[in-house]
Amino acid sequence: MQKNLWKMEKEQRRLILRATPILFLLVLPFFCLAFDFFWGNRIPVDRWMNYFSSTSQTSFNKTLGEQEFIKFHLRRLVRGEDRRNLDETGFACDRAVHSIVCVSDKPVRIDTTRNVTVYIPSDQALEEKETVIRPYAKQEDELKVISPVRMLQYINTTVPPACQYEHKVPAVIFSSGSTGNVFHEMNEIIIPLFITTKQFQSRVVLILEDYKPSFMTKYGKVLSKLSAYEVINPAANQSVHCFPGSVVGLKYHDNLALNSSDIPGGYAMPDFRHFLRQAYGLKFTHVSQITKPRLMLLSRTNTRRFLNEEEMISLMKEIGFQVIVIRRSKVVSDLNKFSQLINSCNVLVGAHGAGLTNEIFLPSGAVMIQVELIGTEWASNTYYGDTAHAMGVRYLRYKIEPEESSLVKLYGRNHSVITDQGSVYKNGGYRAARTIYLDQQNVRVNLVRFRETLVEALSIVTDWKGK
Ligand SMILES: *[C@@H]1O[C@H](CO)[C@@H](O)[C@H](O)[C@H]1NC(C)=O
Ligand SMILES: *[C@@H]1O[C@H](CO)[C@@H](O)[C@H](O)[C@H]1NC(C)=O
Ligand SMILES: *[C@@H]1O[C@H](CO)[C@@H](O)[C@H](O)[C@H]1NC(C)=O
Ligand SMILES: *[C@@H]1O[C@H](CO)[C@@H](O)[C@H](O)[C@H]1NC(C)=O
Ligand SMILES: *[C@@H]1O[C@H](CO)[C@@H](O)[C@H](O)[C@H]1NC(C)=O
Ligand SMILES: *[C@@H]1O[C@H](CO)[C@@H](O)[C@H](O)[C@H]1NC(C)=O
C-alpha cells in the first residue's frame, strides 16, 4: 500500500516535471505582455517571440548561419586533396588544366595599397608561405596584362596591416586586364565569373584588378547581378579590407562552356543563359515568340570580309528575311542594347570570328550560320559550332569552297595553303597559319550554294508557326 502510494506520487511528480516546460512556455507570452504593459515598450514583440525560438535546438543563429553559408560555398570551389587542405589550413588552390583558383575560408585582410596582397592567418606550426597568381581563367594565355595577387599565409600576427573596412561576405578577386574581344571576355571572364560566384547568391564583394570603365559599361549588369555590393577597383581604393574569406582567380570549364559535374557543381549552359536573359532584360526565350524572320548579319570591315556583301543582303531579303546589318561600331560595344537586338532575331550570320560569341543572346531554337573559311575548321567547330548545341541554338555550317576564298588569288589554286592546310600549321607554326587564314583571307560567297543554307534556316525558324 505504502509502496503503491509512493509509486503514484512518483508518477505524478514525473508528470508535473514533464509538464513544467510546456506550462512555462504557455505562460511566458502573458508574462511578457504584462511586462510590456507595466514597463512600457521595453521588450519589443519580436524579442519575446525569440524566447521560443531560442529555447529550441533548431534555433537559427544568424551569425553562425552566415558563417556556415560562406564556408559551405567556399568549400565547393575545391575538391579532394585540396578540400582537405582547406579544412586543415584554411587555404587551398584548385589547379586545373587551364585555371588556378585559390580559396581561403578564414578571415583574411586584403591590402590594395600597392600590389593586391591577401593576408591569410595560419595557426599551424608551418612556415610562412607565399603564393602568387595572376587571376585569369586561362593561365596558358598571355598574362603580362594581368596584375598578380600575392597571398601570404602568415604566422606572426603583427604582419598584416590594420583593417580599414570590414565586409561581411567573402571577396572574389579577378582581372579585366585582357579585354576588347567579346569571345575572350565571355569565355575567360564572364562565364568563369558566373561559375565561380553564382552560388553565393550575390553575397560576395568583387575586387576587379586592371579595372576598365569600358568593361564595366559592357558587363556592369552581369556584375551587379552576381554581387549585391559595390565593385572595388583596387587602383582607386587603396586601403585594407577585412573579409570572412576570399577567392582569387576564376574557375574555367571549357570553350564557352559550363560543365555541371565540374567545380562547383550544378551549373550548366541553360542556367547561364537564363541568368544573362535576366541580367540584360532579354525578352525572348524561344524562337517561336518571334513572328517574323529576322536575320542579323555580322559584317566584318577589316579582315574576313564578305566581298559580295550587298548581293548577300539582297538574297536574304529576297528569301524573306528582314535584315539587320551590324558593322563594327558603337552598336556592338553597347551590350545593354545590342544583346536585346540579337535576342530579337531568329537567325545570326557571320564569318568565323569572335562576333559569333553573340549567339549566346539568341533565343533557343534560333539558327546560327557560320561561314567557315579555309583553314579555320577546328576553331569554327570548337568555339562556335559545338557551343551552339549546348545553348539550344541550331548551327548551320556554310563551309566555303577554295574558289570562294581570296587566298586562291593570292597563292594559286594548287598551293599548299589551299590544298594542305595541316602542313601550313605544322611547318609554319600557329602564328604564321593564323596570319594567313585569319588576317589575309576574305570571301566571295557562292550565292547559289548559300541560298540553300538560308532557305534551310528560314524553314527551321518558321517551322514553329501553327504548333
Ligand atoms: C552564434 O554563433 C557564433 C559562432 O559560433 C557565436 O560566436 C555567437 O555567440 C552565437 N550567437 C548566439 C546568439 O548564440
Ligand atoms: C608589383 O608587381 C609587379 C609585377 O607586376 C612587380 O614588378 C612590383 O615589384 C610589385 N610591387 C610591389 C611593391 O610589390
Ligand atoms: C613578429 O614581428 C614583430 C615585428 O615585425 C617582431 O617584433 C616580433 O618579434 C615577431 N614575433 C615573432 C614571434 O616572431
Ligand atoms: C573603398 O571601399 C570601401 C568599402 O567597399 C568603401 O566604403 C569606400 O567608399 C571606398 N572608397 C573609395 C575612395 O572608393
Ligand atoms: C565535366 O567535368 C567532369 C568532372 O571534372 C569531367 O569528368 C568530365 O569529363 C567533364 N565533361 C566534359 C564534357 O568536359
Ligand atoms: C592544279 O593542279 C591540277 C592537277 O593537279 C591541274 O590540272 C591544274 O591545271 C592546276 N592548276 C593551276 C592553277 O596550276
Small molecules in complex: 2-acetamido-2-deoxy-beta-D-glucopyranose
Poorly predicted runs of 5 or more residues: 29-58
For the largest sheet, list the strands in their spatial order: 5-6-4-3-10-7
Q: What's the gyration radius in Å?
A: 30 Å
The average pLDDT is 88
Report, as a whole number of angstroms, the end-to-end distance.
87 Å
Q: What is the number of helical segments per DSSP (H or I, 4+ residues)?
A: 15
Number of strands: 16
Strand content: 15-25%
Structural class: alpha/beta
Estimate nothing, just give the exact number of structural domains: 3
Topology, pairings included?
Layout: H1 2-39, H2 45-55, H3 62-75, H4 81-89, E1 91-95, E2 100-104, E3 108-111, E4 117-121, E5 129-133, E6 149-154, E7 165-166, E8 171-175, H5 182-197, E9 205-209, H6 213-226, E10 240-243, E11 246-248, H7 269-280, E12 294-299, H8 309-319, E13 322-327, H9 330-333, H10 335-343, E14 347-351, E15 367-372, H11 377-391, E16 394-399, H12 407-411, H13 416-419, H14 421-439, H15 447-462
Parallel strand pairs: 4-6, 7-10, 8-9, 8-11, 12-13, 12-14, 14-15, 15-16
Antiparallel strand pairs: 1-2, 2-11, 3-4, 3-10, 5-6
Task: Walk me through what this model shows.
The structure is a single chain. With 467 residues, the chain is of the alpha/beta class. It folds into 3 domains: 2-66, no CATH class; 73-279, no CATH class; 282-466, Rossmann fold. It has 15 helices and 16 strands. It has a 6-stranded mixed β-sheet with strand order 5-6-4-3-10-7, with no helix packed on it. Helix 8 (309-319) packs parallel to helix 15. The chain starts with a helix and ends in a 5-residue tail after the last helix. The relative contact order is 0.08. The structure holds 2-acetamido-2-deoxy-beta-D-glucopyranose (6 copies). Residues 412-414 line the site of one 2-acetamido-2-deoxy-beta-D-glucopyranose. One 2-acetamido-2-deoxy-beta-D-glucopyranose binds at residues 412-414. InterPro entries: Glyco_transf_61_cat (IPR049625), Glycosyltransferase_61 (IPR007657).
